[in-house]
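Obj.: predict assembly geometry.
Materials: sequence records (below).
Method: joint structure prediction, all chains together.
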Amino acid sequence: AQTVTQSQPEMSVQEAETVTLSCTYDTSESDYYLFWYKQPPSRQMILVIRQEAYKQQNATENRFSVNFQKAAKSFSLKISDSQLGDAAMYFCAYRRLRGMRFGAGTRLTVKP
Amino acid sequence: GAVVSQHPSRVICKSGTSVKIECRSLDFQATTMFWYRQFPKQSLMLMATSNEGSKATYEQGVEKDKFLINHASLTLSTLTVTSAHPEDSSFYICSAPTSGVGWNEQFFGPGTRLTVL
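Observations (raw structure tokens):
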């Protein structure tokens, strides 16, 4: 079974600085998708960025980028120029045929 | 992006009663929808896969007789918590993937907070 591990329950970053959130996963599949979701206090899940496993190039979305290491089964999220609005729970997720498997989450605090 | 709605957004009920939660895809058809449960300060756990026109598929450990799922149309799935008890109190979230070739991006509903007294 696929598992997703986020080893950082909480992280803190100064506004305008850069922070990296870690995620590792375990799977025997060769083709899959990985995601980072943001969950603000409203609880609405918001897609931050996604990565197709067959693509070697790391995905980038504005201030958000990933470091995808397929052999190491690592999928970290880098947030550059952190903003107060980035404060939220961040979940790493692996897409299965049936739904998604989520990591335990990392609570990101942004200090002004 | 596509929109998924849930109703109600929050519900409080007495122990022993049943509660129905609706999940709708507003601007696309979804032959499959997923139901998740999120306990306070925890992650989302997949409960079941709702399939239009057929029986739902439940994850291990989820009681299918307690959490009834009906996928009545291509835009509506319902989750009924039967004989609810305080331990069923949780945040329930549905998601629906768009169909088509390639990416099946999942869109999440805003969630339903269930409190069982």
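Conclusions so far: The radius of gyration of chain B is 14 Å.
To do: check interface contacts against the pulldown list.
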